[in-house]
């Protein structure tokens, strides 16, 4: 009765071709470079902007605090994919035409900076009030206190959280494929549409992501230990 | 707005006290912590502040360090208003810039040391002089080492605070405060967080400062014996006011007020 469900052609045979695998591997490795560059640039933007947003939310100016907080909430409550599309496709209507790479980096950097600002905020809040009082007793300015005392102490406890988002941003880079950034998934798509073979390309891409994500967590933990030792904490 | 016309814009001559609280009021909501407090400390004088918890004694130091905003009255340091500034011939509440200019005369040590944990002892001592006073690193290092020598911590100068005992941390904190060359030093229960066996190493440093340096000092303490030994004057605080004050021998030996007697006998029983 349900014979029609089991039509053979719906279940093509598992057919992995090694010669084809070796043929496409160089292109995928090249694309891995692009993925890593996209993740690294996006993350650097997020690291800097995230700190700026976190500090802005602690500023004395209520207006600045309000605007930044609402902006962060807005970005965190809308999909990254939409933000990528918006910057790339809607930007030109406002006279802002950006290349896929630039739009992608802005979108992903901005998106993650909003998440990182929350991590920084936690770290900044964890610095004891006594540090501020000691800084006042030494007559330091607010800027000096942040730069010399508060931020250096806020970073080590924030590293695990910051590190999680590094892995997150890395795994979100495939979203850039929708505007034509030649990262891993975009390249795998291109390979597949050329030959109608998707198995090898997608499998390798998955393994590459796995191989890079897994050690990252270990490296981040080691890095946290290193920073804490370096700061004598 | 508070009428401050009765307060002088500056105090005259060379006879003015180093620190002067004039009708200082501090309240958190309806809780009055300091109630029209008048307190003068002469240059070079060592004044101890004692009293039950909640009597406002720590608030005195925190207001002088400008860690708390003033709700009434004026505090003068070295004859000039600290909490207020002159504007059109009148005193108005000081803004940050004025506070920064005026509080450079004051240094403070805290109950919980508040050393910078990511810096070594010498770096803690160099931070203020380099960043705030604009000293070169070499100058600041010389000054820091000299002061760490004074507090007996020069051999630990490259240790981070986490590697030091409480008494050692507090001694570094004293050196850090002195490195700013303040005219007035504030000690806020600096031995309260210490293990009994290391209290002596901190009090000895303060003793040395009293005998060898001409600093004006205000100290909040629970160490009655120590206060008695080294103070020129002891103030007993109760309910946001000075209940009684006088030379230590008199205040401890022959307290006049009932609350002072109660407090001192309660403290004695605790020992």
SSE topology sketch:
The complex is a heterodimer of chains A (233) and B (271).
Chain A (H helix, E strand, L loop, with lengths): L17 H39 L5 H15 L3 H11 L9 H26 L3 H9 L4 H31 L11 H12 L3 H32 L3
Helix pairs in contact in A: 1-4, 1-6, 1-7, 1-8, 2-4, 3-4, 4-6, 6-8, 7-8
Chain B lengths: L18 E10 L2 E11 L4 E5 L6 H8 L7 E6 L2 E2 L2 E4 L2 E4 L2 H7 L3 E4 L11 H11 L5 H14 L15 H13 L5 E5 L7 H17 L3 E5 L3 H7 L2 E6 L2 E6 L1 H6 L4 H13 L1
Parallel strand pairs in B: 3-10, 3-11, 8-9, 9-10
Antiparallel strand pairs in B: 1-2, 1-4, 4-5, 6-7, 11-12
Helix pairs in contact in B: 3-4, 3-5, 4-5, 5-6
Protein model, in words:
The complex is a heterodimer of chains A (233) and B (271). By secondary structure, chain A is mainly alpha-helical. Helices cover 75% and strands 0% of the residues of chain A. Chain A has one domain: MetI-like fold. Chain A has helices spanning 18-56, 62-76, 80-90, 100-125, 129-137, 142-172, 184-195, 199-230. In chain A, helix 6 (142-172) runs antiparallel to helix 8. In chain B, 35% of the residues lie in helices and 25% in strands. Chain B is built from 9 helices and 12 strands. Chain B has helices at residues 57-64, 96-102, 121-131, 137-150, 166-178, 196-212, 224-230, 248-253, 258-270; strands at 19-28, 31-41, 46-50, 72-77, 80-81, 84-87, 90-93, 106-109, 184-188, 216-220, 233-238, 241-246. In chain B, the strands form 3 sheets. Chain B has a 6-stranded mixed sheet, with helices on both faces. Chain B has a 4-stranded antiparallel sheet with strand order 2-1-4-5, with helices on one face. In chain B, helix 3 crosses helix 4 (137-150), helix 4 (137-150) crosses helix 5 (166-178) and helix 5 packs parallel to helix 6. The A-B interface holds A 128, 130-131, 133-134, 136-141, 144, 148-149, 152-153, 231-233 and B 65-67, 100, 103-104, 106-108, 110, 112, 114-120, 127-128, 131-132, 160-163, 176-177, 180.
